[in-house]
Amino acid sequence: MHTGEQYHAIIQASPRDRRVRERFQNMALNLLAEGAQVLDLGAGTGIDAKVYAANGHPTFVYEPMAAMRDYLALYCCDEIANNTVIKLASPRYCKVQAVTANFAVLNHFADHTALFEDLSLVVQQGGFVLACMLNPFYLGDARYGWWRHNLVNLVRRGRYAITSESGIHRFVPRVVAQAAAPHFRLERLTPSGFGWATQLYMFLLLRRV
């Protein structure tokens, strides 16, 4: 288990992770109206929140892990002091245009139905949830036994879990979309084509209806 500072250093030192994060941030910023408020769900050490705030978006942050929260308080200390990054004890304590969940936050849930029910009370009509999730079709994982052993579950059920400390679950996009309905509809999904085999992460844009 990494400390918040260790996690921050590792993820910031990874060129691949930085590219994924930049793509996610740019997608979120392009979708947000000027000055719109954001909830960064599973905010980690505040890397995304700092960027949103710098671009004029007051950002609520919810992070359940104490080690991450502690480092977020250091990394975003100026933004917290200026009230452009606002820490929450529960994600229900805000009303925003958008919720962002970067780097597999939603993969820590076994089922998303209750989560999207809660988020429907947080996201304004016409707003959105943008999630970066692990791609269950990524062939780079085919070298692992757990990936091969779960292919049947992926085809039959559209989901599977890996027994590990982190409790990670994999989902096909339709399962997430079904859990989000009727409050949200899947509006955009990337990658496409050959990208399903080569990209570790997928981006799901779900619109509040």
TrEMBL record:
GO terms for biological process: methylation. Pfam families: Methyltransf_23 (PF13489). The lineage of its organism: Bacteria, Pseudomonadati, Pseudomonadota, Gammaproteobacteria, Lysobacterales. GO terms for molecular function: methyltransferase activity. This is Methyltransferase domain-containing protein. Keywords: Methyltransferase, Transferase. Gene3D superfamilies: Vaccinia Virus protein VP39 (3.40.50.150). The keyword Methyltransferase applies.
